[in-house]
Amino acid sequence: MSEKSLFSEKKRKGALxxxxxxxxNACKYSxxxxxxxxxxxxxxxxxxxxxxxYAEEVLCMITLxxxxxxxxxxxxxxxxxxxxxxxxxxxxxRALLANSNAVIIAHNHPSGNIEFSPQDRACAKRLKEAGxxxxxxxxxxxxxxEEGSFQSASEQxxxxx
Length: 161
Description:
Cytidine Deaminase, domain 2; 5 helices
């Protein structure tokens, strides 16, 4: 291939792009600055997103700075009655844009059953692996049920290699 064919006379069109995060609302909460346990995280997810109120599965994320203080609250996806799509690209795009050091991810089970399904387990492992590759730690993956009930993938050992 000649140099001339690599740099042809034909003009290519492109766009000048930039990325910005828009702060939609100031989110005030009276929870501890640092999330110290899965129970702290579950309470914060419920307070900010009201996950137990949804009739379909919803996946949300809290992004954390290097001191593990919450720095962003994200509704990543909404699904159907018993499934929410959670592609690593969509999850970690938000974490990277927010310059996050770590994330905690939660989704609800509208049925109230907080047990991890095989799909939940696979999703948690896939997201953890993607985060490791990108340099963003996934500290936990929670299932939120009714009346404050939750399960933690880190406590269940699901996130272990």
